[in-house]
What does this fold into?
Amino acid sequence: MRKTAIAFLIIIVFVCNIMAYETKANKKNYPGAGVVEVTTNIHYSGRYCLECHENPPTDGHSNLRFEGSFKGLCRCHQDAPGEYPHPVEIPLSKEKKERIPAGFPLWKGKIDCITCHDIKKQCSPNEFKENTLRGAPYPRRTDFCYQCHDRQQYVMLDPHKQIDGNGSIDVNKCLYCHVEKPDVQHSTFKDVKLIGNLEVLCQRCHSISGNHSGNYNHMIKPSTKGLLRMKRMRKKYNIILPLNEDGQMTCITCHNPHEKGIIPEGRPGAKGADSHYRHRLPDKLCVECHEM
It folds into this structure.
């Protein structure tokens, strides 16, 4: 009798777990507004209408929540500015409006999420493609940008090409990072004035994912042992390995951002300007630094 009771109890618990799972699944598959978790992907299925609409919509843009504000409707995407490069709710001049293709709708007269993305397609199964960019697919991602922007005005600038055709320093390139052109003959790293945070200056062009390099975060304060090792390397190779104002390693600790010829040959700051990846240290950088 006891074994029968235990078996019956196990069956009840099992059934209750199944019911709880199905209830949870139903909440996810047919949720009311705000029921789904942040990690739930509400796109591609057509089952999450009430996350954006007050009532089941009769068309793509009816009964919208958040008073039709895409900052609320697309709230899951607001915390990743590095992944979403275009601002929203942008009013346009008459000239700008004339450049926008007819199939790129404005929202309340402004550029918003639906200008670039056909969000209605994200609500339909099997229709999602290329982030629903309008007119996709494109050979290159930037080809999509040139649907509205003038390609000629967005030619990539290389701030590391700092010497012009006459062999003179292009001061405008200096001002890309410096408040004023440094005295290349005498200035040290401590003398120069930058227009902002050094790492951010580099990351404007160099978007490197993960921990760089060697899958380890190098933007740290070196240990006492590390500082002694850096001091030995400076003397051994007649180089500089500059730290930022907080004493932390940064991009230019390992990489020389200047073109060869900017800093006079023989000065420690000139080393690495013509090397692969502009490494200040010769040979294998990891081996030298970590004494491997």
Notes: Residues 1-33 have pLDDT under 50 and may be disordered. The chain has ten helices and two strands. The two ends are 70 Å apart (CA to CA).
